[in-house]
DNA sequence: CTATTATTAGAGTATATACTCTAGTGAGTC
DNA sequence: GACTCACTAGAGTATATACTCTAATAATAG
């Protein structure tokens, strides 16, 4: 593998593991056992590394969220969309963590991310539309559909932060992909009231699959013995 | 005003304005025209400053979210809760921005914040319960109510980040409290399907008040002509 | 006044951070 | 062998960051 690609891969790994803020270019170089100079031969600066990683992320999500225009969508499609989006979120999880700082430091990234967000919101909205076409949910007026799409987006993008901050586990215990996907449970919760009678049971069963196994994950001051 | 309080106030102001990550203790001291040594006489380190600011924030929100046990709650109460929570979020808006890093750097803060989150979730859940008691929304089974409360929390705490990142405006144009409160529109969107017939119109009218005035705020690549 | 305590200034420090500069190496080409 | 060119090493640098130290000043108590 080319050094350039190794740098991108190692950066992503380190960023995901310890947060972009805690990882310096020297860390990345040391992790790969290359010199800082070598790293800076391949990338002008840290921002450029992050930007390229974002482009990968963007490409991945855009690929997943390519909603077919002709054919109707099914419950399987919905499952695929949700699973894929959370997979993407997991693979590039450092990104949303320091999002505001990253966007403040890089104009290109800021602009691209804004467009990316809007594409995602459109995709979510189209999914709602097609779910209604397929008779899975009741059709909604445009305005409600956009507001709901936005709520879905907020839940999806904030789910990981919630887990990491409100989680009962200590910092050492890292998150698992399974826990992350409990976000799907939350997203499906948003759709419950709009389900049609004919699909209600199926969707509720799907949702049940993602239900948090250990309720203690959001446990409070609760009994220590638990 | 005592130097100690001035430090807390200036820190909050600077953190809110430019992000905790971009503000050093030296910045804070310079802003107040005091010496770094003076600052460190009053606070052991930067974390301690942040921790004390969090305690204020916590106190404020706990005060607002003190749900009365005896009397039923009204729509006015709901409005008050929403307005207050977003006011709090606004006043301490730096906090959620760098949340993960802050919690990673300070165990006390991590623990306290976790409990704080759980108290908030409980409060939201109790509000739902009492809204149902008051006949404003339909009663929900416990499990659905917790999942919905969590969604409300996710929307509330992520709303600001969304505005700052997806906003069409440039970085220089700062957020206004009015824009922030459009988050109330999003929260009320979550409740729409559960409204009772007798209150539907009133709540929809309330929601309308917070509707984003300029739809361009979430505008996409849309027609340049506007 | 004297002694004590709270507060402040301001220079200083160890470390980190993002990044630069010079000097190469090794594979291929003519 | 001379030359190019992608790639790499490693020491070095300017600046920033969080924080410390010493000494001085203001406030207060006896």
TrEMBL record, chains A, B:
| Residues covered by the HTH tetR-type domain | 1-61
Where the record puts its DNA-binding region(s)? 24-43
Question: One Pfam family name from the record?
Answer: TetR_N
Q: Does the keyword DNA damage apply?
A: no
Provide a Gene Ontology MF annotation, just one: DNA binding
- Mind listing the UniProt keywords for this protein, alphabetically? DNA-binding
Please state what the protein is called.
TetR family transcriptional regulator
